[in-house]
Every structure is written in C-alpha cells, then in structure tokens.
Specification:
Elements lengths: L11 H16 L5 H6 L5 E8 L3 E2 L3 H11 L4 E4 L6 E2 L4 E8 H31 L6 E3 L9 H10 L13 E3 L1 H8 L5 H12 L5 E5 L2 H10 L3 E5 L3 H11 L4 E5 L7 H5 L5 E3 L2 H4 L6 E5 L3
Parallel strand pairs: 6-11, 7-8, 8-9, 9-10, 10-11
Antiparallel strand pairs: 1-5, 1-12, 2-4, 3-5
Length: 292
Amino acid sequence: MSFNTCVPEIDWKRVDILIDLALSEDLDERGDTTTNSVIPADLEAEAIFLAKQDLVCAGLNVAERLFRKLDPSIVFTALVKEGEVCKKGTVMAKAKGKARSLLTGERTALNFLQRLCGVATASHYYQGLVEGTSCRILDTRKTTPGWRNLEKYAVAAGGAFNHRIGLFDRVMIKDNHRELAGLEGEHGIIRSVKKAKEMYPDLEVEVEVDSLSELADAVESGAEYILLDNMSDDMMREAVKYTAGRSKLEASGGITAERLPSAAATGVDFISSGALTHSVKSCDISMDIIVK
C-alpha cells in the first residue's frame, strides 16, 4: 500500500488540448495584431525566463511544448530541472527564434509555467513542514478543471505526493456515501466496504470517518485506508493507537500549514490538503527579450 513515489507522466494529449485552447483565447482568428504590425517578420530574437522570487520549478516542459506548437523552429533550452529549487534571479530557460513567435507565446507560456511553479513551490513548503516524520502530504481532487494531470505532476515535482487521480482508481467511501449506506441499517461502513471489494477486487478501499466509533467499523471492514475527517490532534493520536497499523491513516480537514507539524506528529501516515492546488499563488516569473 503506497501513494506515488515519483513524478507522474504528463498526459500530453490532454495538455495539447489545453495549449490549443489557451492559444485560441489569445489569438482568435486575427492573431497577435500588435506583434504582427510592429515586429518585422524575419527578426530573430532570444529570450530568457527569469525567476523573480524563490520557487520550485515545474512546467518548463509545458512552456517548451507551447512554443514548439506555435513555431516548430523555436529552440527552447531548459537551464534547470523539474523539481529544482530556484533562487530569485535564476535564469530558468532560454528560447531562440522568430521574435514574433516569442512575443505571441509569451503570456500563455508564462500562465502555464507560473501556475505550475506555484503548485510545486507550495507542495515543497508543505512537505517540508513535516520533515522528520514519516508523514506524507497528499493532494486532492480539488484541482482546476482540465488541469488535474498537470497540477498533480507539479505536486509531485515539488516533493509532495498524489492521492487518487479520479473516481476510477480507488474506492473512497466519504460522508455522503456513509449517510446513504446507513439508511439500510447499522454498520453501513462494513457493508459498503464488503460490496466495494466484491465489485472492484483490484482496487484499494478508503473510508472517511469523523468519530472513533466509526473508526472501529472502518478497521473491522478491512479498508486499506481510513481518512480521519476534521479530528483534533488528540483524537488522531487515539485513532493511531487504536488502529495499530491495521489500516493506513490519512488526516484531512481543518489542517492549516501552521498545524501541519503537530498533526504529523500524531503518527498519521498521510495528511491531504486541497490547498496544494486550489489556493496556491502563481509564481513571479518573467520572459525578457535579450537585447544585444
């Protein structure tokens, strides 16, 4: 039983769709009217991508993909690695080619790069807050629609870990599932886990609980993972003691960055945080034309 331990592959088919949509928002049918009217068609230029704050790199490969789709003749060179910590002032990449193409792709490329670096930087910070424990920080499905693969890629690049990708790769019995299952009588958790394992024997099962009494049923059910929802640190310590390794424990809900160290110290295996993807601030990165 484990969550990912490496950076997931980017689904380039999905990313190409995002790139095409993003470029079409900017260009419509008339294209880049400013650049086309001001910049000579045959002018060559070079640009650098400059980190204007401390950050963790993620998404240079996406920026390169965008420029190459816009103009295959552009030469894009990454100067830092994905997941690398970059200090303010770091030149992250260079791009050479038609000046028109560089200017036309500038904002869209930066939108991808700044967002993904923001996710990676937040993930690096959160995982660093639990350093010295065995706890892993997980992302959630609270992602930007259409961006899930990219945002989970950036989470892993930053050093945190991915939870399930979607509704298809793990059975996760949450509060509303429990409420409806409870209409059939007591011990709905045990009954639900049994049904899930019978229908999807190849998938791991996770159950969300918000009390120690529900925890007892979840442990008895044989669920591989149990999510402790909105529990205090004291309750989580009790849950860890009671479970005694029979299931992996994930904490979620109401756990701020300030509380992460104490929550991790309770002995839970994982802490999931939607903030890794739904509340991050894009990093400050510029694309500057080099004038020689």
